[in-house]
User: Fold this.
Amino acid sequence: MTHRTVLVINSGSSSIKYQLVDPDTGEALASGLVERIGEGRGSLTHNYDGKKVTEDDPVPNHGAGLRRVIELCNEVGPNLSEAGIVAVGHRVVQGGAYFDSATVIDDDVVERITELIPLGPLHNPANLKGIEVARELLPDVPHVAVFDTAFFRGLPKAAATYALDREIARKYQIRRYGAHGTSHQFVSRLVSDHLGRNDLKQIVLHLGNGASASAVVAGHAVDTSMGLTPLEGLVMGTRTGDIDPAVVFHLRRVAGFEIDKIDDIFNKRSGLKGLCGHNDMREVQAAADAGDPEAVLALEVYAHRLRKYIGAYAAVMGGLDVLTFTAGVGENDHRIRSAACEGLEFLGITLDPVRNETRVAGPHRISADDSRVTVLVVPTNEELAIARQCLEVI
Ligand code: AMP
Assistant:
């Protein structure tokens, strides 16, 4: 049978994650990960047809990594010339004020993404590397940039604007751009389809290693927790989320820390990891079960922040119809879901404990029959979302 497929590439600073997706069925025909690019020992995993190939040869750069992936496809499968690739979809984190939807990549688009590096210094350079090498190696298909910020490009000004000196904000393009937009859009659309309604007031909680909340009214995002960068908002695996910016001044003036060190602490050494030493929620839960008071507090801080955002977004929308949990923690951790909803009966949120604890593949309802708000668990699929967005623009 002939497929049409999209090769989805998520290029990080030292890694390339890829998936060959059939956008019609959602099936992942092949997937893999190249890691430790530029280090002494690389790591490559390629999955196809139930087979898993691993290698640990050095991968000097992104070009070499992607070239090896293409060779492996042709050695192990799937044969790329027969795979029906109609597009290559690239995840790009920061689309700034330019991009409100997926865009076919040409030299101008590359230039714009390059211009946006100051707004996405941790991600855009890595995303650009992936685009550059993939365009070279797969020149005969359209390449599409799918932006993490695009779904939030149309946020109401009141939600997107920081109360910062307006001249400075304008000059340096400081506003709330959001992130994880591909997931929030995919999940909120799926919820609308699942419930057969397009007028819903929704909150989506994307709780993975990174975590974000969005408020969506009738398919349009009206608020989101990530800001200029993915640092703002919820407590994450290693990021602080919301914190008084004066902590930066304090650490600079009192502790004498350099700004890059503070950046590193806030992005990589805080969140759950900073609070209790573990960034993986399974380990935090295990430590809390074993009686570790720091892990118990980490869970309390995490859930407190979630409840605060649920209340805030219900107020922003003037009501709430559906609350949805997604991503690694949201899809798998019933205790976090229950802690996030605790005490919110006044908002119309009542979980059914048995439904909440029952594992079901695909979207499922975990609220009680008499809960005014429908609470759902919906698996996100960012690769499929990227693949489908590619088809919309090619
Ligand atoms: P993601 O970024 O969506 O891949 O989510 C990754 C995170 O999901 C991991 O760091 C874990 O903290 C969390 N996770 C995955 N499985 C579980 C589970 N069964 N229970 C709790 N957390 C989980």
